[in-house]
TrEMBL record:
Domain of life: Bacteria
PROSITE patterns according to UniProt: GGDEF
The keyword rRNA-binding belongs to this UniProt entry's keyword annotation: no
InterPro entries on file: Diguanylate_Cyclase, GGDEF_dom, Nucleotide_cyclase, Rev_trsase/Diguanyl_cyclase
Catalytic activity: 2 GTP = 3',3'-c-di-GMP + 2 diphosphate
The EC number(s) this enzyme carries: 2.7.7.65
Residue span(s) of domain GGDEF: 222-357
Coiled coil: 145-186
Keyword entries, A-Z: Coiled coil, Nucleotidyltransferase, Transferase
Protein name: diguanylate cyclase
CDD domains (UniProt xref): GGDEF
Molecular function per GO: diguanylate cyclase activity
Top EC class of this enzyme: transferase
């Protein structure tokens, strides 16, 4: 994604985009900035038509729709777009800021020159003119000088106003920068895949475990279950085909998760090539059935590289499943599921292992 506009135009576009963004249910993060920036920048774009259509039907853009729009219209052109968007925004705001600071600096220097000129002119008007100057009998400064003084004063006033405007712009830019930073920190969406990220996952896990405390017990009871999963030999994929293609594989796996995991279960990307699924209330058998479905779907998928007929080698997943027991802390549950995952790796990968109790 590029931001080809001048700093003035970019500022204006961001100014238009901000209020629109804040009305949506999707959080403010670089992905929504990118969508709304593109929305205001090109009034005839297909993205804008789709956003308008969506708004007319649903009233506001949620997280998932924002991510879809982003991937459909903005991300395809560039595999590392999210980072670019963040970086682009950072540079854009930095550029705007530098521009405003430079203009302010120049303005204030010009203002000083004008002040000095005004003082000199006033002095000249007070009788500092040489005796042969065109002063009238009462010693008033000549008309031309009066006019020059009036212009100079007017310019001083204009300069002061301009400086005020630039100071306001600077404040707005600082605020924007602050918001981008906050949005980045508060983001709950993984930029690469559009799945909930680790932060979102941790929050939900904490909430589900608290809600389950004191709930049903017994061997058949439904409880929170956790699946931790990790792509097998993923380093080889990166090494053999490059990091951008590795990213494409991660997105493909995320799509499988999105398609297979249904509410109220939550699928998230919790690390580089690690994903997790939380089932808020399930039996071990149900959790294992979902794990096996995910394993088999990923193993059965074929990933092709652009311009290559033959698919690459099979992508596989190893999974660890753990059932929560009452009173267990979230970290302990994750730890058990992780250990089961490593058991699955050690046993040959492309399989599911169950955690010890
Ligand atoms: N393309 C891409 N690669 C990533 C990303 N995050 C982590 N990785 C890569 O994932 C790989 C993980 O490698 P390892 O931890 O050695 O594990 P592995 O090769 O998958 O092997 P096993 O887990 O033992 O099966 C490293 O090469 C990381 O660079 C990402 O966002 N994009």
């Amino acid at each position: 994604m590029q931001y080809p506009h001048t700093p003035e135009r970019s500022t204006e576009l961001l100014r238009q985009a901000l209020p629109l963004m804040s009305r949506q249910s999707a959080a403010l993060h670089p992905m929504s900035y990118a969508v709304w920036y593109a929305y205001v920048a090109d009034t005839a774009s297909p993205l804008r038509l789709e956003v308008d259509h969506h708004l007319a039907q649903r009233g506001s853009l949620d997280e998932a729709t924002t991510a879809q729009l982003f991937h459909r219209y903005l991300a395809e052109h560039d595999p590392q777009t999210m980072q670019r968007v963040s970086e682009g925004l950072r540079q854009l705001i930095g550029g705007m800021s530098a521009h405003a600071a430079l203009a302010k600096d120049q303005t204030s220097r010009y203002g000083l020159t004008l002040e000095r000129m005004a003082a000199e002119l006033a002095e000249a008007g007070d009788g500092g003119l040489p005796p042969d100057a065109d002063a009238d009998a009462a010693g008033h400064p000549p008309a031309m000088l009066e006019e020059l003084m009036a212009h100079t004063r007017q310019m001083q006033t204009d300069m002061a106003r301009l400086q005020q405007r630039l100071a306001d712009s600077q404040r707005e830019i600082d605020q924007l920068r602050h918001e981008v930073q906050r949005a980045r920190e508060e983001s709950q969406v993984d930029a690469l895949t559009g799945l909930p990220n680790r932060r979102a996952f941790d929050r939900r896990l904490g909430a589900e475990l608290s809600a389950s405390a004191g709930g049903a017990s017994g061997a058949d009871a439904r409880r929170p279950c956790l699946l931790m999963m990790d792509l097998d030999h993923f380093k080889r994929i990166n090494d053999n085909y490059g990091h951008p293609f590795g990213d494409q594989v991660l997105r493909a796996v995320a799509q499988v998760l999105q398609a297979v995991v249904r509410e109220p279960a939550l699928a998230a990307r919790v690390g580089g090539e690690e994903f997790a699924v939380l089932l808020p209330a399930a039996t071990l058998d149900e959790a294992l059935a979902l794990a096996e479905k995910l394993r088999a779907t990923v193993a059965g998928s074929r990933v092709r590289r652009k311009g290559h007929e033959a698919p690459i080698e099979r992508i596989t997943l190893s999974l660890g499943a753990a059932v929560w027991h009452a009173g267990e802390a979230p970290e302990a549950l994750i730890d058990r599921a992780d250990r089961a995952l490593y058991t699955a790796k050690a046993a040959g990968r492309d399989r599911v292992a169950v955690a010890d109790h």
